[in-house]
Specification:
The complex is a heterodimer.
Chain A (H helix, E strand, L loop, with lengths): L14 H13 L7 H12 L4 H11 L3 H10 L11 E6 L2 H5 L2 H12 L12 E6 L11 E3 L2 E3 L4 H12 L9 H5 L1
Parallel strand pairs in A: 1-2
Antiparallel strand pairs in A: 1-3, 3-4
Chain B lengths: L20 H6 L4 H7 L4 H11 L11 H5 L10 E6 L9 H7 L1 H15 L3 E6 L4 H16 L15 E6 L9 H8 L23 E5 H5 L1 H7 L1 H5 L9 E7 L6 E6 L2 E2 H8 L9 E5 L8 E2 H4 L3 E2 L1 H6 L8 E6 L4 H15 L5 H18 L5 H12 L9 H15 L1 H10 L16
Parallel strand pairs in B: 1-2, 1-4, 2-3, 5-11
Antiparallel strand pairs in B: 5-6, 7-10, 8-9, 8-11
Helix pairs in contact in B: 2-6, 2-10, 3-6, 5-6, 15-16, 15-18, 16-17, 16-18, 17-18
The complex binds flavin mononucleotide, iron/sulfur cluster and FE2/S2 (inorganic) cluster.
């Protein structure tokens, strides 16, 4: 699990992240308009936005803390708490449902010993139901960070979980794109 | 397969190298931009797109050239937004455009920005498309390096900056004013219109929002001419359209077809019909927000804006969901109502409460606790939701609900008479806390 960050000490971002924030502030037409991409910079480094991250955004972008909290809570992909190592987000919308999302979810729940919306006690896995992932013709599908796994079957899920338990993120269907 | 095959948008789909600038240029890419910046006036470009009859491919089907004309003449500061939020269930076409051919969308965006007088363009991509954002950013970087973006593009004196903006999971950000608010660094809640974004949008300045597929069609219209585009399709639905097809057909996927193609032909020749052992029950033709048509009705439809409107549904995004006989329609509508309830931004009472009620009533029916009055109540709630809200999300929930009820009423009634089983079967989709 990514580490909690102490709220009282100012957030120390890596030099790369700090410079990405400076670039974004310079390129966006107003400082406030750079809020979402700056949140992403913090998310990319820490996996969530801790209270000290909110303070940093307020300082860099000249927005109110209320604005930052409002935005953090409105968008489902932004997180303010440390996340499990592997957050498995399974599509439960209509096309995937028709193509068998339900048995896939049941299989995941069984193999991980948790229900949708829960996290394994060791903090390694979390299981979430999400709305359409834009892979409807390739469903059922699940997303793990930037990786999208399509045409899921119980066998594919077992392979995925085995690999993740060893700390290896297997090649996803969408990784093909980035290898070319 | 009968008729001519078209690949205005899809010629590089499925190709491992389609996203590379060198490949795009070798196949005629950026020639349209060269022509436009080589002496055309913005008004000429707008006129060409208007003449082509291109209609917005994001769902509403509004003529693109006409929308561009709404930007006040002489406006100093104009913004152009490409809508790649693609969150409408059943829709996955813009993803392919950006995956396999990002430069076509980038070239279309530069030309469109020139046509409306924008100096800054955003490509707003839904946050879930993580890999795609890297892909598009790489293509934008290539375009900058080649001099297609930045200052004094191709020596024409035209400047354009382009930012790839990553969403963060909110269906409502696909609505154009929600999208604009999102880039302003706010919650993605829609605004009341008017004013329309073309007059007062991003930072209160004139802003045009167009779907990826609309923008990607522009370079071809410039190089081949509006007449050639208009010659494809039907009188009022010109050009080609991408349909993304999901469900148990032999060949699901994204297809580019001329508008007006008969569904029957598309279904048999392109999709290969249903997989073994499944029968066609119904089709949602334009993404989850449009009314469903039973098999017998869709079989006689042509796939264009007018024919589908006449049949009581809409072309929408072209996200075609194929529903097999084995599907339980009440279960499917529960899945959809859960989605709209989840995604309502909460500003309007009819939408916030109505979507919740619809979901709750359908769920109650499926748990075997429904009464005959519940079906009237569903209709009653729909009445209180339609046409009364800031944005069309409320209507987007009502349209499938009403049509499922109207076309498949016996399935709803059966639940009331028989008492459906309670137990693990009925806990879809959110577990016990649902
Ligand atoms: C709830 C809602 C969601 C929408 N989602 C999208 C979307 O994901 N992509 C899109 O292009 N348009 C979407 N739209 C339509 C946009 O508001 C807008 O009409 C469109 O982007 C305009 O582009 P076009 O004229 O090229 O179609 C949505 C509309 C609503 C009401
Ligand atoms: S109709 Fe629904 S989604 Fe649209 S603005 Fe109102 S509450 Fe928000
Ligand atoms: S319905 Fe699952 S990806 Fe679209």
């Amino acid at each position: 699990m990514n580490k909690p960050v102490d709220a009282r000490t100012p957030l120390q971002l890596s030099p790369e992240s700090a410079s990405r924030i400076e670039t974004l502030v310079a390129r966006y037409p107003t400082r406030a308009s750079a809020l979402m991409p700056c949140i992403w910079v913090i998310m990319d480094e820490l996996g969530h936005v801790p209270p000290a991250g909110v303070a940093l955004l307020v300082d860099k972008l000249g927005v109110t803390p209320a604005r930052v909290h409002e935005v953090l809570s409105f968008y489902t992909m932004f997180r303010t708490e440390p996340q499990a190592d592997y957050v498995l987000q399974v599509c439960h919308n209509i096309s995937c449902h028709i193509m068998g999302a339900r048995p896939v979810i049941a299989h995941l729940e069984k193999q991980l010993g948790i229900r949708m919306g829960e996290r394994t006690p060791d903090g390694k896995f979390a299981l979430e139901g999400v709305e359409c992932l834009g892979a409807c013709g390739m469903g059922p599908c699940l997303q793990l960070g930037k990786h999208l796994y399509e045409h899921l079957t119980p066998e594919r899920i077992d392979g995925l979980l085995d690999s993740l338990r060893k700390g290896v993120v297997p090649r996803a269907d969408t990784d093909r794109e980035l290898e070319a | 397969m009968s008729g001519k095959q078209y690949n205005i948008l899809s010629s590089r789909f499925g190709r491992a190298d389609g996203h590379k600038l060198a490949v795009y240029e070798r196949e005629g890419g950026y020639q349209a931009l060269r022509r436009v910046l080589g002496g055309m006036q913005p008004a000429e470009v707008r006129e060409m797109v208007k003449e082509s009859g291109l209609r917005g491919r994001g769902g509403a089907g509004f003529p693109t050239g006409v929308k561009w004309g709404f930007v006040p003449q002489g406006a100093e500061e104009v913004y152009f937004f490409v809508n790649a939020d693609e969150s409408e269930p059943g829709t996955f076409k813009d993803r392919l455009c950006l995956d396999y051919d990002p430069h076509q969308t980038i070239e279309g965006t530069i030309i469109s920005s020139f046509a409306v007088g924008a100096r800054l363009a955003f490509i707003y991509i839904r946050g879930e498309f993580g890999w795609l954002i890297d892909r598009v950013q790489a293509a934008v970087d290539e375009a900058y390096a080649a001099g297609y973006l930045g200052k004094n593009i191709l020596g024409s004196g035209f400047d354009l900056e382009m930012l790839v903006h990553k969403g963060a999971g909110a269906y409502i950000c696909g609505e154009e004013t929600g999208l604009i608010n999102s880039v302003e660094g706010k919650k993605g809640q829609p605004n009341i219109k008017p004013p329309f974004p073309a007059v007062a949008g991003f930072l209160q300045k004139p802003t045009i929002v167009n779907n990826v597929e609309s923008v990607a069609s522009v370079p071809w219209i410039i190089t081949s001419g509006p007449a050639a585009y208009k010659a494809i399709g039907t009188e009022k639905s010109s050009g080609t359209k991408l349909f993304s097809v999901s469900g148990p057909v032999k060949r699901p996927g994204v297809y580019e077809v001329p508008l007006g193609i008969p569904f029957r032909e598309f279904f048999h020749d392109y999709l290969g019909g249903m997989v073994e052992g499944e029968e066609l029950k119904a089709v949602i033709v334009g993404g989850s927000s449009v009314p469903v048509l039973p098999a017998a009705e869709i079989m006689n439809c042509n796939l264009d804006y007018e024919s589908l409107a006449q049949a009581g549904t809409m072309l929408g995004s072209g996200g075609m969901i194929i529903i097999p006989e084995s599907s339980d329609m009440v279960e499917l509508i529960q899945v959809l109502m859960h989605f709209y309830f989840d995604e309502s931004c909460g500003q309007c009472t009819p939408c916030r409460e109505g979507t919740g009620w619809l979901h709750k009533i359908v769920k109650k029916l499926r748990q075997g606790a429904g009464t005959p009055e519940d079906l009237d109540l569903l209709e009653h709630v729909c009445q209180g939701m339609a046409g009364l809200t800031i944005c069309p999300l409320s209507d987007a929930a009502v349209m499938p609900m009403r049509s499922f009820l109207a076309k498949f009423r016996p399935e709803f009634e059966a639940l009331i008479q028989e008492t459906a089983p309670v137990g693990p079967q009925s806990r879809w989709p959110r577990g016990e806390q649902e």
